Each structure stands twice: as structure tokens, then as C-alpha cells.
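A.,

Following up on our hallway conversation. C-alpha cells first:
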């Protein structure tokens, strides 16, 4: 403007806030022209003078612009739609009769229309997300992603077009550490400071990353459990926090140690997975091809509809059991790889070497702090493979024989025994493995406590009420709609816990549960029986039900379940609404991947083979829910239950069984809920020993005497 009072910088300083509409005088001129023409045609349609009247109105606006040194590219601001600046701007137009007429035209028509236009434009942009605004501004600036990325890159602080692409698509969010990039973009795109950063999404706690000095894969797991100010704390305190996270969140409760203590041994935060992988992986060592061929042969032998010609077997494996056993063998060889077994010597023929078995037991004991059930599982698989009548290795002389001696693992005696008489070598190895299994039975039974991770819950008078606090924690920390993918994941976490508590089924039944979306036709009982899986669907009354055939249950040979089972889900505590919200968000997890039809689906990525969970994926997903929402973290103040430890989905059945036994006094209700026998509930699920029964019986006896609080 001509007057110093209205320099553009001064105008920007006193504006009440940046107008997201960015209406220019060019936009306003066009709007005024159209608005005035509609007004005139409505009152006097077809009048010749309408054109001159429109010209007079637009001339009033251009005169205002000329008087204040405003161009068509300038943004409409306080000088036209404000108060004090308006008074100054209108006076500079002069006081003659022409100026007065134009001032009147501006005041009665143009100012209201400008405000109308800005309000309309603001309504368009007021709900813009960060990604939408970034894309709009970039396109208005006529810049490609690559050009913008190069423009905001400075020195060593490079920004890639992929980063900007994921921000625009909202597949990822700019972290607080990327604020300087956002501020640089504001400069490049020519918008006032804060226009982008003010709607920069507040990063959820689990998306933040802290510098810990650990490997990237471990740091990613640890960061979710560190306080926001971790980076500013002193080194000693950071070490204490990392040690607590490693011991209480990332690790699994250990068995009772030989000295009788029940605390887990000290562990570092680098809790790497050691099982060999079937696919190329950045984190895991891939199993050699010849070992995978042997595993495939073992799988085919145990899962084929018909026993291969010339062989015998006593049991068949389902696909889930086959997956589990396949993993156990790969974990066995992953341990041997860490002990120094060369890749070329990895073969199932190492099952014939007692020295290998003992080294594996010692390695696992040292790693876990005691003898664990996982050692037994591996030895049971080895023992069955060496069975003289039904074991694949014993029935296949020379199967996978790769037995050159390896110091400390495979002795010359092992090699000579296998080369001399394969059958006798298998018998010798089986006798040794069976002996170790018998010895381990007492050691593992002595130290194993399946309830240790759940003690704060199971020792509570109302275990289910206490455990349900995790549901409330998930709800309280549910990400907003600005994080659609994070919200979808949190809704899945909520459903994993809620359906697990409501149905009390085993994890296999939960992860394999089909879903019939509204409008689809449910599967027939015949198809469900053939697939041995259940399905969740709506009934005729609009309520959610789960139909589960007998063939889907682990104990399908018992009388605890019927041939066809229908479990209605009641709309307790808003369950139906949360189911529907999850199903609406479920496509965000799938992205463009094929829908496997299961209720629970993974968050797919470029390496995902299928969106359906396998046994280990679902187990880890459940443990993540417990680690993220269940375990109280004194350093962050997050988490529902003090003293809770990581545990898997099967623990839900312990919680439900203990709650029913503790509150109803009998095991029959718990057995009915778990669809199992009372004996199994007593032996496996409910933490309700003789001291608990004694205490309740004693209280009942004395309460009957002092039932009104008086004297006996």
C-alpha cells in the first residue's frame, strides 16, 4: 500500500490467523462479477444496463486495490474484511463523490461477498488433514514430489520423494524430529509459518523413536515403552529404564531357578529371535535349501492323506501342528547355528547325535534360566522321528545324512555309528532322547509356573474385572481419526482381547475364525465342518453369533462340544458398536491385499505373503496387546495392571477359569465356559488350590455365625 502503516509484513503480523482459503483479489473479482450479475438478473432480467452495473461494481474493487497498492495475486485480508485496517484502507481512496460512491459499493456489497467467499472456502479446507493440505499446496505450486524433496533438502539432511509421498497418502506421519522439514516446506511453498506445522499430527506414543544405541529392529520394539523425555535423561537412568523394559516387557517370565528364586535372570534388551527362517530376512538367518527339503519331506509324511508307500505312521498332523513342528526344528537348528554348527552340516540326521541333544539342552537352560517346556517339545519331536516303527528318520536309512564330525557337537563315534548301522544308530539315539525326556519331566515340573505372568490378576478377588482393565486402557488410548491406520490397529487389539474374553476359545479357533460381513451369505455347516473352522455372522435378528463345528475344536473327540455349536455374542459394554467400527476399519489393514475372510487380519506390508494370521503371528499380536496396554510402566505411567508380565492368548482361559471358580465356588461353570472337562480345569486352568478352598470354606463357616456382625 502507499501508506507505511499498511506494509504487507505489518498486515501479516496483526492478522488474527492465517486464512486457509488463501482467497486472492483475482478470486474476489471473479466472485463479485458473478454475484453482481446474478443479483441484477434476478431483479431485472435481460436489462441492457446490467452489464454497466456489473462493471461499476468491479471498478469499485479495482479502485480500492489501486489505492492500496494491491495486485490480483495478493491475498484478501484485514484491509478489506477487518476493522481498524479497513478504516485506513478506505480513507486512502479519497473523499470526492466518485470515491464516496465506490466506498459505498465496497461496504454494502463487496465486503459481505468477500466474507461470504472466505467462509465458503474456509469450510472447504477447515477439515484438511496434513496429507491433504501438503498435496494441495504442492500442486498449487506446480511442483513434483521430487522437486519439493530437493528444495527442502539441506546439506546432509536429505528428504526423499518417497517420504513426501507417504506423508501425502497418510501411510506415514511426520515425526517430531521432522519438524524442520515441515517448516522448510512452508518456506518453499510460500505459506506463512505454522500453516502446515499447526496441523502436523501429534505423534502417538508408540510411533515415537528414541536413540538407544541398540540395533534398529530392537530399538523399534523398545521405543514404544520409553518415556517421552528419555533422550534428555542421564545415561545411568536411561540404562535403568532399558533394563526394566527388557526384563518386564520384552522378556517372558522365567521358570523357578535352581536356587529356588522365582525372578527372571537379568537380560539385556537385545532379545533376538534365533530360529532359522524359511524366507530371506533382514533379521534372521535363512535355513539352507537342503534342510528345508528335509523339513518338507517330514511335513508331507505327517500330513498326507495316505501314508507314503513302504512307510508307517501312527499320527497325522493338522496344518497348524505341522507349522508348529516346522518352527521347532528351525529353532533347534538356529540354536545349533549359534553354537557353531556349519550350514552344510544342518540335517535331520543330527538327531542321531547325543552330544548335539545335550548341548541344545544346556544352551536353552542358560538362555532361559532353567529347564523349560520348550526343551521338552523339541525332544519329543526328535524322539518321535526316531521311533523304529513310525518315525520317518528311522524308516529312511541315510535320511539327510550330513554327518561329518564337528568339534563339540558331532563326534567321530556318532558318524561311525550312523554309517555302520542306521537302524541301531536310531535306536541308540532314541534311547538316549527318551532318557533325557524322563529326566526333564521332573525338572520342568518342579520349576514351571504357568500362572506366574498373571499373578496380579489371578490373586485378585475378581480376576476378570481386574483383567478387563486392559480393555478400558485400549479405549482411553485409542488414536483419533487423524491416524486411520493406527486406529484400525488399536480396534483390532481391542477385538482380540474382547472376543478372547467373551468366547474363551483357544487361539487357533480365534485366529481362524471367518467373518461373514453384513450383506454376505454365511457358510453352510457342511463347509464349516470340512474346513474345521468357525464363522462369525449376523443372525436374523441382527445380533452377532459365532458358529463352530465340533471338528474345529482341539478336544473334538470329547463330549464337551456338540457337532454344531452356536455361540451368541451379547451386546455387553458396547461390543456390537466396536465390532462394526473394527469391520469398517479392517480394509485399512488389508490395503490392496486379498481378503482371507478371517475376522482378524494382519497389517500388511511389502513382505506380507497373506493377511491371515498364523499361530506365531497371532500369538505375537496378543502379546503386543499385553505389552502395550496391559503392563503398567512406572516410567511412562501407561498400562493397566501393575506387576503383569507378557503372556499369550491361552492365558485368557486361565483368567476366566480362575474367576468362575473363585466367584461361584465350583469347577463345572468354568468347564462349561471353556468347553472342557472339570478335571482339565482343575489340573490346568484354574489357580485355585487347597489354601483357597480352605480360606473360603472357613469364611463361609464363620460368616454363618457372625452374619449380622454381632456376637456368636
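Then the amino acids I'd put at each of the 712 positions:
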Amino acid at each position: 500500500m502507499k501508506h507505511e502503516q499498511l506494509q504487507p509484513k505489518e498486515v501479516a503480523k496483526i492478522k488474527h490467523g492465517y486464512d486457509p482459503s488463501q482467497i486472492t483479489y483475482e478470486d474476489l473479482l471473479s466472485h463479485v462479477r458473478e454475484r453482481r450479475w446474478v443479483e441484477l438478473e434476478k431483479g431485472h432480467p435481460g436489462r441492457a444496463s446490467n452489464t454497466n452495473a456489473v462493471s461499476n461494481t468491479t471498478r469499485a474493487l479495482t479502485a480500492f486495490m489501486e489505492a492500496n497498492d494491491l495486485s490480483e495475486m495478493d491475498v484478501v485480508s484485514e484491509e478489506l474484511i477487518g476493522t481498524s485496517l479497513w478504516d485506513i484502507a478506505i480513507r486512502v481512496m479519497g473523499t470526492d463523490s466518485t470515491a464516496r460512491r465506490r466506498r459505498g459499493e465496497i461496504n454494502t456489497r463487496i465486503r459481505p461477498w468477500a466474507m461470504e467467499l472466505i467462509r465458503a472456502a474456509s469450510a472447504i479446507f477447515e477439515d484438511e488433514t496434513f496429507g491433504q493440505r501438503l498435496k494441495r499446496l504442492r500442486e498449487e505450486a506446480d511442483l513434483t514430489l521430487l522437486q519439493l524433496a530437493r528444495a527442502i533438502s539441506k546439506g546432509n539432511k536429505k528428504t526423499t520423494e518417497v517420504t513426501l509421498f507417504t506423508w501425502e497418502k497418510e501411510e506415514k506421519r511426520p515425526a517430531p524430529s521432522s519438524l524442520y522439514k515441515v517448516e522448510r516446506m512452508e518456506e518453499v511453498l510460500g505459506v506463512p509459518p505454522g500453516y502446515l506445522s499447526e496441523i502436523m499430527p501429534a505423534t502417538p506414543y508408540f510411533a515415537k523413536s528414541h536413540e538407544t544405541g541398540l540395533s534398529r529392529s530392537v530399538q523399534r520394539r523398545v521405543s514404544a515403552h520409553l518415556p517421552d523425555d528419555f533422550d534428555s535423561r542421564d545415561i545411568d537412568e536411561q540404562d535403568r529404564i532399558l533394563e526394566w523394559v527388557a526384563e518386564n516387557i520384552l522378556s517372558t517370565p522365567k521358570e523357578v531357578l535352581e536356587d529356588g528364586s522365582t525372578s527372571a535372570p537379568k537380560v539385556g534388551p537385545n532379545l533376538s529371535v534365533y530360529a532359522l527362517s524359511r524366507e530371506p530376512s533382514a533379521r534372521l538367518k535363512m535355513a539352507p535349501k537342503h534342510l528345508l527339503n528335509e523339513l518338507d519331506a517330514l511335513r508331507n509324511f505327517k500330513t498326507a492323506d495316505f501314508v507314503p508307500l513302504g512307510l508307517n505312521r501312527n499320527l497325522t498332523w493338522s496344518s497348524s501342528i505341522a507349522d508348529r513342528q516346522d518352527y521347532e526344528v528351525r529353532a533347534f537348528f538356529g540354536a545349533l547355528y549359534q553354537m557353531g554348527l556349519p550350514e552344510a552340516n544342518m540335517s535331520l540326521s543330527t538327531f542321531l547325535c547325543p552330544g548335539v541333544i545335550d548341548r541344545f539342552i544346556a544352551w536353552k537352560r542358560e538362555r532361559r534360566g532353567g529347564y523349560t517346556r520348550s526343551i521338552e517339545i523339541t525332544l519329543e519331536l526328535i524322539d518321535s522321528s526316531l521311533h523304529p516303527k513310525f518315525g520317518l528318520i528311522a524308516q529312511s536309512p541315510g535320511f539327510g545324512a550330513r554327518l561329518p564330525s564337528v568339534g563339540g557337537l558331532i563326534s567321530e563315534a556318532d558318524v561311525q555309528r550312523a554309517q555302520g548301522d542306521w537302524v541301531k544308530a536310531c535306536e541308540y539315539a532314541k534311547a538316549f532322547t527318551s532318557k533325557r525326556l524322563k529326566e526333564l519331566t521332573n525338572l520342568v515340573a518342579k520349576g514351571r509356573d504357568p500362572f506366574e505372568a498373571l499373578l496380579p490378576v489371578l490373586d485378585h478377588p475378581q480376576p476378570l474385572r481386574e483383567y478387563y482393565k486392559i480393555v478400558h486402557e485400549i479405549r482411553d488410548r485409542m488414536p483419533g481419526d487423524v491416524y486411520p491406520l493406527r486406529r484400525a490397529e488399536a480396534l483390532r487389539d481391542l477385538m482380540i482381547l474382547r472376543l478372547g474374553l467373551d468366547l474363551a476359545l483357544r487361539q487357533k479357533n480365534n485366529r481362524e475364525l471367518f467373518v461373514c460381513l453384513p450383506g454376505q451369505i454365511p457358510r453352510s455347516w457342511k463347509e464349516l465342518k470340512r474346513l474345521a473352522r468357525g464363522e462369525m455372522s449376523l443372525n436374523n435378528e441382527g445380533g452377532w453369533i459365532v458358529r463352530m463345528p465340533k471338528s474345529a475344536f482341539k478336544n473334538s473327540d470329547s463330549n464337551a462340544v456338540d457337532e454344531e455349536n452356536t455361540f451368541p455374542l451379547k451386546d455387553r459394554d458396547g461390543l456390537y458398536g466396536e465390532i462394526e467400527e473394527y469391520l469398517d476399519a479392517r480394509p485399512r489393514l488389508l490395503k490392496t491385499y486379498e481378503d482371507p475372510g478371517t475376522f482378524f487380519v494382519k497389517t500388511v506390508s511389502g513382505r506380507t505373503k497373506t493377511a491371515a494370521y498364523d499361530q506365531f503371528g497371532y500369538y505375537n499380536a496378543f502379546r503386543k496387546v499385553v505389552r502395550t496396554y496391559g503392563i503398567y510402566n512406572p516410567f511412562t505411567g501407561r498400562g493397566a495392571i501393575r506387576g503383569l508380565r507378557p503372556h499369550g492368548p491361552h492365558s485368557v482361559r486361565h483368567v476366566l477359569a480362575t474367576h468362575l471358580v473363585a466367584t461361584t465356588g465350583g469347577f463345572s461353570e468354568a468347564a462349561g465356559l471353556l468347553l472342557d472337562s472339570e478335571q482339565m480345569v482343575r489340573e490346568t486352568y484354574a489357580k485355585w488350590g487347597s489354601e483357597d478352598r480352605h480360606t473360603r470354606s472357613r469364611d463361609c463357616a464363620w460368616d454363618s455365625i457372625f452374619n449380622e456382625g454381632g456376637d456368636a
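Residues 1-20, 253-272 have pLDDT under 50 and may be disordered. Curious whether your intuition agrees with the design.

B.
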